[in-house]
Design a protein that fits this description.
Layout (H helix, E strand, L loop, with lengths): L1 E4 L17 H8 L3 E4 L1 H4 L9 E4 L3 H5 L4 E4 L6 H17 L4 E4 L10 E3 L7 E3 L3 H8 L3 E4 H9 L1
Parallel strand pairs: 1-2, 1-5, 5-8
Antiparallel strand pairs: 3-4, 6-7
């Protein structure tokens, strides 16, 4: 079983209310053994929703209670992000997930590089909250870019 960010498979669950569909990922879903998830929806956020970024930190510092996840307007949605990450972890454990393919640069799903909290398009090193909790629990995480690159090799 593979955990996949639902937006990558064409599900309209991004903060904008659309998807980040990648044909190579969508074709995986039709093959089965895929569990689609949207941590932000699982955490209780609506679709569409305001853009959010991690303020002064990353998924690890959010899980440690050091950093907060905030909307551009300043509304704090940390609790929803942590709740959604924990729900994805439960799903991954229940279905025996081998690995996860998550949306790059996302404050939930990003791996390695995420938006920097300035809402200016800047990036910083670190993982999103869901990617971090999965990695901390031994589940390998790939971004869609890493996964598609591996398919092309």
């Amino acid at each position: 079983m593979i955990i996949v960010s639902a937006c990558l498979a064409g599900i309209n669950c991004t903060y904008r209310g659309d998807s980040n569909e990648k044909e190579r990922i969508t074709s995986l879903v039709s093959g089965g053994d895929i569990m689609l998830v949207c941590p932000e929806q699982l955490g209780g956020l609506t679709t569409p929703r305001e853009a959010v970024e991690i303020a002064a930190g990353n998924g690890a510092t959010v899980l440690e209670g050091i950093s907060r996840v905030k909307c551009a307007s300043g509304v704090d949605v940390t609790d929803q992000f942590v709740r959604g990450a924990k729900e994805v972890l439960k799903i991954a454990k229940l279905c025996g997930a081998e690995f996860a393919i998550l949306k790059s640069r996302s404050p939930s799903c990003g791996k390695g590089i995420i938006h920097d909290g300035s809402f200016s398009g800047g990036l910083t090193e670190g993982n999103g909250v869901t990617a971090e909790i999965l990695i901390q629990n031994g589940i390998t995480v790939f971004t869609e870019e890493e996964y598609i690159s591996r398919l092309s090799d």
